[in-house]
Amino acid sequence: MAEDLIRYDTLAQEALRGVVRTVLHKIAETGLPGEHHLFVAFDTQADGVSISERLQEQYPDEMTVVLQYQFWDLEVTDDGFEVKLAFNNIPERLVVPFKAVKAFYDPSVQFGLQFGAPGAANDAENDEVELPAIVNEDKSGSGLPVRSEPTSDDTGLPETGSGGAAVIEADIVELDAFRKKK
Fold first, then answer.
1. Using an 8 Å Cβ cutoff, are 46 and 17 in contact?
2. Going from the N-terminus, what domains does the chain have, and what CATH number goes with each?
3. φ and ψ of 143, to 5 deg
4. Is the pTM of this model over 0.70?
5. Closest among 84, 80, 133, 87 to 111, alpha carbons compared
6. Is the pLDDT of residue 180 over 70?
7. What backbone phi and psi angles, to 5 degrees, belong to 34?
């Protein structure tokens, strides 16, 4: 297969991160509507992430925050978001660039996005393409894969029972194979 000089992997991730940006921007303006609430997982080591030393020690690699009842001062820019949350009754300010976001999930509607490592698709040492995975409703009840690391409330991403969500991987199809399907 020819080398992807257009970088579709990067473009797809940027477009889907735009979904996260748009949702957070709407919430910053009007608050969370209905039963919506969000789980946002991010890389705590990524450039531009700003969290306290205490949180950095507790979550050295990845952290998942829940935006539901007790968050305030949500500010969204083109590049990321800033939010204040309380951890063990201690208020903390988090700054998270969108490029650091690894997963976004709204369990009220069984929708989420999971992002791969930037540039992984064009890494010569990487045989598998890592693209964002889209989480949609799964009628089989297989459940959403969850992280094993603790999160801000030690729950991890929510496990779902019957009618839960599943990750649907995006596939890259060679143009010739696509034409033959038509």
1. no
2. 8-181 (2.30.30.220)
3. 90, 160
4. no
5. 133
6. no
7. 50, -135
| Predicted confidence (pLDDT) per residue in 39-71, tens digit | 999 999 999 999 999 999 999 999 999 999 889
Dist. CA 38–CA 24, nearest whole Å: 9
Residue 97 pairs in a beta bridge with 80
- The 3-class SS string of the chain reads CCCCCCCHHHHHHHHHHHHHHHHHHHHHHHCCCCCCCEEEEEECCCCCCECCHHHHHHCCCEEEEEECCCEEEEEECCCEEEEEEEECCEEEEEEEEHHHEEEEEECCCCEEEECCCCCHHHCCCCCCCCCCEEEEECCCCCCCCCCCCCCCCCCCCCCCCCCCEEEECCCCCCHHHHHHHC
Q: Is the pLDDT of residue 111 over 50?
A: yes
Rg of the chain over Cα atoms, rounded to whole angstroms, equals 18
Question: Is the separation of the CB atoms in 126 and 4 below 8 Å?
Answer: no
What is the spatial distance between Cα 77 and Cα 95, in angstroms, rounded to a whole number?
A: 11
Give the separation between CA 179 and CA 27, rounded to whole angstroms.
Answer: 42
165 touches 106 (CB < 8 A): no
Rounded (10°) CA dihedral 35, 19, 48, 121: 130
